Amino acid sequence: MIFVGVDWAEAHHDICALDEEGATLAKRRIPDTLEGVRQLHALIAEQLGPEGEPAEVVIGIEKDRGLLVAALVAARYHVYAINPFAASRYRERHVTSRAKSDPGDARVLAEIVRTDRHHHREAAGDSTLAGAIKVLARAHQGAIWERQRAANALRNDLKDYYPGALEAFAELTHPDATSVLGVAPTPEAGERLTRTQITAALRRGGRERNLARRTGEIQGALRREQLRLDPALASAYGEATGAHVAMIEGANARIARLEAALAERFSQHPDADVISSLPGLGTVLGARVLGEFGDDPARYADATSRKNYAGTAPITRASGLSRVVLARHARNGRLADALDWWAFCSLTRSPGARDYYDELRARKKTHRQALRQLGNRWVGIYHICVERHELYDESIAWKHRLDLRT
Fold it and tell me: Which of 108, 122, 257, 379 is most open to solvent, judged by the fewest CB atoms within 10 Å of its CB?
């Protein structure tokens, strides 16, 4: 077998190949192009010899996606995505002077997969459909985060010069807010809006019901007495508000488009019916969870392995007489966010989940701690349902709690 470390960079990649004894077979720097990938395959083929097999090649790289990783997986090499934090600690085993270089990092990665690959996870062989769901789910989540950042910036500005708008619109990402603020970004413009103009703006935003009532509420809030800034300063704020509104409207359009594409792809996945049967998991959350976990059947040895990857399982720090149990902070942030929302949504859809949450709160757990612990339980249930391809059954999932009651 040969062991290859690939220190990935934007313009080029450093390669180091080792044999089973740790002796250096080859070093090279390749460009981040198709020709560079050809050079990498040629280097590996040269070291393997005419009778070598791709399965005899083990590659370590600090990346789990992208064109280069896809090409390596497609070539049927064993590819291990090494966490950069872990790689930096391995480097200290080889260099105590804290020196660092790209060729040196490539050798460290090769050493990791040569000696300790059993401690790391091989790049998942997820289906193409699961990969597409992951891309769309992340883009959808990113658009939501982008919209929220713009809404937060808009809210901060409105507090400083246009409090009437905050009174009129509790949710600044709603089409009602963006459509009216788009035509009246200053207090003076808002005060001059007639009922007809407000109604027309609401219609452009997509509102069809309760137009008269909502128009009256908005006009009343915008015409209420409030402190005013100098018109020149208010006009500048108005320009900033217009920019924020445009960003929110653009994000709303992207979110709608991505959500439609995500729903279509998710419905095509073989596990969609199983995942959708779990309380609290709809199309969007279900797709996020599926995309981040992947669908490689060999990726997780058991439910504990999946919980560890999710970051919901606690960690223990013990030394001598000291023993502390802590939450994991080094984890997949996107998956953690999805699991938090799943646990929260399940409270009104699963009696067993609600009962467990209430018990945790009675034990003086905070809301966040209780949700994290409930999410950990849901990850275990998810693992069993997906592994067995069985629909969720409340009486089975929470049977032990029902038995305790009786």
Answer: 257
- Distance between CA atoms of 105 and 31, rounded to whole angstroms? 17
Q: Are 328 and 314 in contact (CB under 8 A)?
A: yes
Q: Where are the alpha helices (DSSP H) in 205-280?
A: 211-223, 231-268, 272-276
Q: Are 179 and 201 in contact (CB under 8 A)?
A: yes
Cβ neighbourhood burial of 210 (10 Å; 0-12, 13-18, 19+): exposed
pLDDT (tens, 9 = 90+) of the chain, 406 residues, equals 899 999 988 888 999 999 999 899 999 999 989 999 999 999 999 888 888 888 899 999 988 778 888 888 888 899 998 888 888 888 877 766 677 788 888 999 999 999 988 888 787 678 889 989 999 999 999 999 999 999 999 999 999 999 999 999 999 999 999 999 999 999 999 999 999 999 999 999 999 999 999 999 999 999 998 888 999 999 999 999 999 999 999 999 999 999 999 999 999 999 999 999 999 999 999 999 999 999 988 888 899 989 988 888 877 777 777 777 667 666 788 999 999 999 999 999 999 999 999 999 999 999 999 999 999 999 999 999 999 999 999 999 988 776 666 5
Contact 165, 185 (CB under 8 A): no
The 3 state secondary structure assigned to 275-335 is HHCCCCCCHHHHHHHHHHHCCCCCCCCCHHHHHHHHCCCCEEEEECCEEEEECCCCCCHHH
Q: If we measure between CA atoms, which residue out of 327, 404, 319 comes closest to residue 373?
A: 327
Q: What is the pTM (predicted TM-score) of this model? A: 0.81
Q: Which amino acid is at 161?
A: Y
